[in-house]
């Protein structure tokens, strides 16, 4: 089992602090966080001292990047910064983020084989961050192109970054002018897309553009009444579509639809979700674990580990219960949890069996 790298541990220890606002408008956060927010930071070091980590990524060379925000209230960021370290924990660079005063200001960071693609203001201004912390603007072109290995979907599935070309281009057109709401590019350069909601569940499909192909393949999705897809994931072996249903109590996770990644005519299997998983499943994230199981979580406080072989579901214990909003990031066998409300960061090397509070 891989252990938490010294780099990420050192990085988050140095930069994990209390939140300066919540996303639910309830005025949450402790007194010290509110005090820090009242004095707007003016330097990168101050932002890293009082800000909360909101995004973390590790590139193919083991370099680690964490982005931080300081907020004056819900969905209003006033300062941002980032820190980059190498695999040994040495600081390579620090720099300011982009201050964008709206709810879309969460920075975007995407790991590449060497370096990162970043959108530091969360507003579609893309740059490359290299090993020395130098930022280079990324050119955007108007013509779609063939996809390739290592491509990264951005712009809410509307565009794709190519590390080979070094540019961002529109997503290859979907059949009938459909718009993708979810887009995943697999390791071979193939694309998988969920188009906008169909008129009825019976019309829902998954689209697949195999690597090197020019024609999208359709795979019908069998959805329940009032059901709709809320995510898309492609692991080493599987394609996974989490499905929610709208009920009186809210949006509840209904099942995971899974099928083998290979084979155009592969059949879907339905992994039915257990009861009691809450009613906040407006979206879902699925990650493939090294042992073939699936980690599925909402954007609030529910996480489950699913075994697609025997259709078993097991709760993943998060670092703390109560009024939290968790962002989970998987890196090999290390799992990181960023607390959107409290601003803390945790790491687990045994899939939630034990969490280490990196703030000490």
Largest sheet: 5 strands, antiparallel
Q: Judging from the principal axes of the Cα atoms, what is the shape?
A: globular
The helix count comes to 3
- Unreliable segments (pLDDT under 50, ≥5 consecutive)? 1-37
Please bin the fraction of helical residues: under 10%
Number of strands: 29
Mean pLDDT: 82
Distance between the termini: 23 Å
The value of Rg in angstroms is 20 Å
Structural class designation: mainly beta
Instruction: Report the sheet-strand fraction.
Output: 35-45%
Structural notes for this entry:
- The protein has 3 domains: 1-130 and 322-347, no CATH class; 138-220; 224-316, no CATH class.
- With 360 residues, the protein is mainly beta.
- It contains 3 helices and 29 strands.
- 38% of the residues are buried.
- Strands 17, 18, 19, 20 and 21 form a 5-stranded antiparallel β-sheet that branches. Strands 1-2-3-4 form a 4-stranded antiparallel β-sheet, with helices on one face.
- The chain has helices spanning 6-15, 31-38, 44-50, and strands at residues 52-58, 64-73, 76-85, 91-96, 108-111, 116-119, 127-129, 135-137, 139-140, 152-154, 159-162, 167-170, 180-185, 191-195, 205-209, 217-220, 227-229, 233-234, 238-247, 250-260, 269-272, 285-288, 294-297, 303-307, 312-315, 326-331, 334-339, 345-348, 356-357.
